[in-house]
Task: structure prediction
Amino acid sequence: MNKKLEFQKLTDAEMRTAAKNFYTKMKTRRTVRDFSDRPVPPEVIRNALLCAGTAPSGANMQPWHFAVTTDSKIKTKIKAAAEEEEKIFYEKRASDEWLAALNPLGTNQHKPFLETAPVLIGVFLKKFTFTQNGERLKNYYPYESVGIACGLLISALHLSGLATLTHTPSPMAFLNKAFARPKTERPYLLLVVGYPKNNCEVPTIDKRSFNEIVSVVGEQTENFF
Ligand SMILES: Cc1cc2nc3c(=O)[nH]c(=O)nc-3n(C[C@H](O)[C@H](O)[C@H](O)COP(=O)(O)O)c2cc1C
Result:
């Protein structure tokens, strides 16, 4: 069964303005590692999660679960477990090449933000969907789908005035226990959410130029942009 698409038609001028405004807002997003402990309105988190849930997904299987906590006891446990894994990562597991890539960011095994930030969202990837009668259905392109949902989530939080840190303590198996999620779900990333601390600093980094990340092929490539 189909239904009529609700599509907001814009004029060319409106489209140009909308695209420019969106980019202008999105380019101010930065990963924050120094959070204030100021609580955030739950409704803002809820709407950002609803936004994430609108993401496209392979065969519409929606292979994601978002586990939210503001509980200080849980956050303390997550911090301890993450720091344990990250200590091994920085001291043993990471290759020299990886450490060199991380060097400009100034990251290390200490993760105080996991306790300070008001909200942690554990994102879990579901390789399978279990129906009510116990049937196991395969989810298609779960990695791509969850990545897109996380992109929407990060964008929604940013546009709502909150900062995020995409954290991937490696390995992340401890997140299943911390967030009470079944082993059938794979921890995908840990999103740290809140306000930046006053005078928060971020690493000076560059984004690749347009020409580096985009190519145009086929006819009419000259002056396409
Ligand atoms: C999949 C992924 C994993 C990341 N893992 C970590 C992490 O574990 N710790 C961290 O401090 N930053 C992490 N980051 C943040 C990146 O370092 C950051 O996005 C990058 O340096 C670009 O900076 P920006 O987000 O401010 O543009 C991760 C980002 C992504 C997309």
Notes: The two ends are 39 Å apart (CA to CA).
